[in-house]
Amino acid sequence: MNEAAAITLSDKVGFLSRPESHARPTAAVDVKETHTSFVFLTDDRVYKLKKPVHFPFLDFRSLEARAHVCREEVRLNRVLAGDIYLGTVPLMLDADGSLSLGGAGLVVDWLVEMVRLPEADLLDHRLKAGRVSRPEIDALADKMARFYAARIPARSSGTPYLAHLDDESAQNTGHLHALHDHLDGRFTDALVETAQARLDRCRGEIEDRIAAGLIVEGHGDLRPEHVCLLSPPVVIDCLEFSADMRFIDPYDEMNYLGLECTMLGADWIAPVLLGTLERALGHPPSADLMTAYGLFRALLRARLAIDHLLDAHPRTPEKWPRQARAYLDVAARLSGLQQRLD
């Protein structure tokens, strides 16, 4: 076994969790875990360490793969977040077997380094506190509209977008059906059949939008927790590991952000986002397609929430069924079906 392989993920996480491991002074290190990363928050920096995991849609098992995806995360996110993304930093193993961030020795992993944004100004926090203004959402909508307008049309990549909708819709149905015992009657065959029928009915329109060059490389994971309402606003954490999964109809992506804001009690935001997008880009989808997009996203979010129960050791297991049920209620309202609410 080589020296790099002898350093375990637990070793790396333990080292990065200690304040004294960081060159910039910090009172503490807050550690967060996702399916694909460990995130270390110091007083003024954020470091993201990719896990050596393998899923159908990504493979981070090799050091080279993790180095590449770290570089891609910085490159892609600088478009909407600028120098918030400072670059990549090697995790080193020196001659005496000690780990360090940067310096001399053997590279055992790579991290993304970011400026830490004020948590209180993240859009989800602002919405929960009731501190979001119309001018702030206008600024965000303008920024995203300029972003989409500058993207190169992706006619050749439109087909993966449609394939993505089909594949994820099938997974939504399968996973929600398998875990329906946790969903308190919210999941029904009629709900997913209605969503699929909507998507099927709109297939020709989606294909026309692909042919017209209206599908572009977007953010890929545009949610309130990835928006910071500074001046100007900053958008972080785009989906870095799959170009195909970033190709999207801008109206689908902005509608998704609007749906998430509605979930947090701000249903006025979606019309602002979509109105700005229409003025900037034109070519709005039909009302039927917008409903199909909303249904797809609500069911996808329900599935991603309930899928946490498939983890070997789910974190906060009581949270995910509740969240999934809330998204299923949104899907039911969009579909016109009557579902029992909490």
Short characterization:
This is Aminoglycoside phosphotransferase domain-containing protein. The chain has 342 residues and is α+β, with helices and mostly antiparallel strands.
Write the layout of secondary structure elements.
Layout: H1 3-6, H2 9-16, E1 30-33, E2 37-41, E3 45-50, E4 54-55, E5 58-59, H3 63-81, E6 85-93, E7 99-101, E8 106-115, H4 123-129, H5 134-150, H6 158-178, H7 189-201, H8 203-211, E9 216-217, E10 227-228, E11 234-235, H9 243-246, E12 247-248, H10 250-263, H11 269-281, H12 287-306, H13 319-335
Antiparallel strand pairs: 1-2, 2-3, 3-8, 4-5, 6-7, 6-8, 9-12, 10-11
Describe the structure.
The protein is an alpha+beta fold. It folds into two domains: 3-116, Phosphorylase Kinase, domain 1; 123-335, Aminoglycoside 3'-phosphotransferase, Chain: A, domain 2 (Alpha-Beta Complex). Helices cover 49% and strands 14% of the residues. It is built from 13 helices and twelve strands. It has helices spanning 3-6, 9-16, 63-81, 123-129, 134-150, 158-178, 189-201, 203-211, 243-246, 250-263, 269-281, 287-306, 319-335; strands at 30-33, 37-41, 45-50, 54-55, 58-59, 85-93, 99-101, 106-115, 216-217, 227-228, 234-235, 247-248. It has a six-stranded antiparallel β-sheet with strand order 1-2-3-8-6-7, sandwiched between helices. A two-stranded antiparallel ribbon has the order 4-5. Strands 9-12 form a two-stranded antiparallel sheet. β4 (54-55) and β5 form a beta hairpin. It is globular. The model has no long low-confidence stretch (mean pLDDT 93). This is Aminoglycoside phosphotransferase domain-containing protein. It comes from Polymorphum gilvum (strain LMG 25793 / CGMCC 1.9160 / SL003B-26A1).
